[in-house]
TrEMBL record:
Classification via InterPro entries: CCR1-9-like, GPCR_Rhodpsn, GPCR_Rhodpsn_7TM
Entry superkingdom: Eukaryota
Membrane spanning stretches: 6-29, 41-63, 69-97, 118-141, 161-182, 202-220
Pfam families: 7tm_1
All copies of domain G-protein coupled receptors family 1 profile, residue ranges: 22-239
PANTHER family assigned to the protein according to its UniProt record, in alphabetical order: CELL ADHESION MOLECULE, LEUKOTRIENE B4 RECEPTOR 1-LIKE
Lineage: Eukaryota, Metazoa, Chordata, Craniata, Vertebrata
Gene3D superfamilies the record matches: Rhodopsin 7-helix transmembrane proteins (1.20.1070.10)
GO molecular function: C-C chemokine binding; C-C chemokine receptor activity; leukotriene receptor activity
Gene Ontology CC entries for this record: external side of plasma membrane
Name of this protein: Zgc:194202
Keyword tags: Cell membrane, G-protein coupled receptor, Glycoprotein, Membrane, Receptor, Transducer, Transmembrane, Transmembrane helix
Length: 239
């Protein structure tokens, strides 16, 4: 067993044990959904499904952290692709949910639910297209005595393109979220907006979760982009 993979495996196990029942409960029980519009309900359910899609792949990643990748190249590529579809789907869904609330409150005269539904339908094809590089760059790599399912870039330009895509989608989603709720806060009565416990919890959780979980990842990606663009081997090795 690989002792270096124990801590990440424990973290992923906790994510699996908490996330799978939680998202299934959201899909089946739909807590407090009666207070939400039908469009918001669709977006929340879509977010739960996309999160669940990523979570169900975790047992194989946990095993690979401890004992190496034994599932073959095809499984390596497909599972990575599914994971990226889920991640991009979640990010785009959060951005769309924020934009929908912004349009509904701030620009109600221009709000068109049919167009929002169309964006929701297009969300998954876009996520699938953005995830295609995972099928190309994910390879089986020997790491000491272990076989790993890892990134293997053919050139610096390919690495730069993949890192830029991840970073741009992440930052666009986060800043869409931030902009939308700042505008909502400015538009409606501040006391009404933040004295509503449900709204306050939703806003706080979305912003904090996106910031805490995604900003470190994208900061590393930005450093990776800089290292690749500048051909700084020292920085690349540190990252």
């Amino acid at each position: 067993m690989n002792s270096r993979g124990v801590l990440p495996a424990v973290v992923l196990s906790l994510c699996f044990l908490l996330g799978v029942p939680g998202n299934i409960a959201v899909i089946i029980l739909k807590p407090n959904f009666q207070q939400l519009s039908s469009m918001t309900q669709c977006l929340m359910l879509n977010l739960a499904v996309s999160d669940l899609l990523c979570l169900v792949t975790l047992p194989l990643w946990i095993y690979s952290l401890l004992y190496g990748w034994i599932f073959g190249l095809v499984a390596c590529k497909i599972l990575t692709y599914v994971m990226y579809c889920s991640v991009y789907g979640s990010l785009l869904n959060i951005a769309l949910l924020s934009f929908q609330r912004y349009m509904l409150v701030v620009h109600q005269q221009f709000y068109n639910q049919t167009k929002i539904r169309l964006l929701l339908v297009l969300l998954w094809p876009v996520a699938m297209i953005l995830s295609i590089p995972a099928l190309v760059v994910r390879q089986l790599v020997s790491d000491e005595q272990w076989i790993r399912c890892k990134y293997q870039y053919s050139c610096g330009a390919q690495e730069l393109a993949v890192q830029l895509t991840e970073t741009l989608v992440g930052f666009i989603s986060f800043f869409t979220l931030l902009f939308s709720y700042i505008q909502l806060y400015r538009k409606v009565n501040r006391g009404v907006f933040f004295n509503n416990p449900q709204t306050s919890r939703l806003v706080t959780c979305l912003i904090l979760v996106c910031f805490v979980l995604w900003i470190p990842h994208h900061t590393v990606n930005v450093l990776g982009v800089a290292a690749t663009a500048l051909k700084d081997k020292g920085l690349q090795q540190q990252i």
